[in-house]
Write a structure and sequence with these properties.
There is one protein chain. This protein has 299 residues and is of the alpha/beta class. 42% of the residues lie in helices and 20% in strands. The strands form three sheets. The protein has a seven-stranded mixed beta sheet. A three-stranded antiparallel beta sheet has the order 5-7-6. α3 (50-64) packs across α5 (84-93). Residues 4-20 have low confidence and may be disordered.
Length: 299
Amino acid sequence: MTQFPNTAVSNLSALQNNVGNGLSLSEQSFGKLRQLIYDSCGIYFQDNKKYLLESRLLKRINYLGLNSYEEYIDYLKFNNNNGTEKKYLYEAITINETFFFRNQPQLDALVTFVIPELVALKTGADKNKLRIWSAASSSGEEAYSVAMIFLDLVKPKYPLLNIEIIGTDISHAVIETAKTGKYKEYSVRNTPAYYLKKYFKQNGNSFEIDEKVRSLVSFKLMNLYDDSAMKVMQNFDIIFCANVLIYFDQKSKVKVVSHLYNSLNKGGYLFIGYAETLHTISKAFKLISFPKTIGYKKE
């Protein structure tokens, strides 16, 4: 999942000295940038993260040939080309940390409890269709993991069941990686040998997802904070949104969780990260306990 930096750097002075070329982010410019980012995607950089924003934007500022962070703010406002520059801004401020089968207890709950429950309740035209959304998919490992367990553990039990998996992220770069279905050893380090052999083609230290898996998943850009964009994300049975809420402030969390709630079908499930909770954020969901994990059900 695309994440936003929150790890303190032990040697802050070394990082600040590495900023190079004499540019520094003033408190005033930091405030403007922070507000611009917050208004765009709901992410709030706390005061102690100024150095991180300064360091991560420097490369882009140098590439554009700008002379200050203030010039970059003006560039964002007046030369954004219908949002193109914001794409690069999001690339600069996001960190992507994920791998296949990262949250095995959630996948186990999906197969053992959630999908059987949803299948039993479905009627009408949607009886044999399941829609799953990986809402912070990063480079696609989570979405593809769900696709693999569907093929291996769900489809044999429910041969008429079809699945649609959509992976979204705010980062254009990771979405493009996800679409290729090609990964390095780091991404597959936690993948069971059985799945690695059955659903990947290895070429040196590169691993390519089998077409049977890729055909179940589609990817697109999505800003979870964008009201208009989120209106089209409807009628999902299951949503995974892990390790995103911890980077929002309370107001943004409430807004994003409300969007996710509206995107779910009645009886659908939301799964979030280990370090996250909906306590104080939303009372609309019912907390459901599974072995070694929890989920949130829309009643």
